[in-house]
Design goal:
This is Copper transport protein ATOX1. It is built from two helices and four strands, in the order βαββαβ. It has a four-stranded antiparallel sheet, with helices on one face.
């Protein structure tokens, strides 16, 4: 699995929960390690391409940027 870090526009725990929800739909292909509202960073491990993870995160309606892959 590859470690990925995304920056996501988050203002509250509700935003973080939205990210958890869409990532949860990817099943065991993604393991969320940390979602930090203060730093606006999501750290996870994924067995699918970063582009697919980003597409899922974009379903939250928030701006998503891949920081590290």
């Amino acid at each position: 699995m590859t470690t990925l870090v995304f920056e996501m526009e988050m203002t509250c725990e509700g935003c973080a929960n939205a990210a958890r929800k869409v990532l949860g739909k990817l099943g065991d292909k993604v393991h969320v390690e940390n979602i930090d509202v203060k730093t606006k960073l999501i750290t996870l491990k994924s067995s699918i391409p970063a582009t697919e993870v980003q597409e899922a995160l974009e379903k939250t309606g928030k701006k998503i940027t891949l920081i590290s892959a």
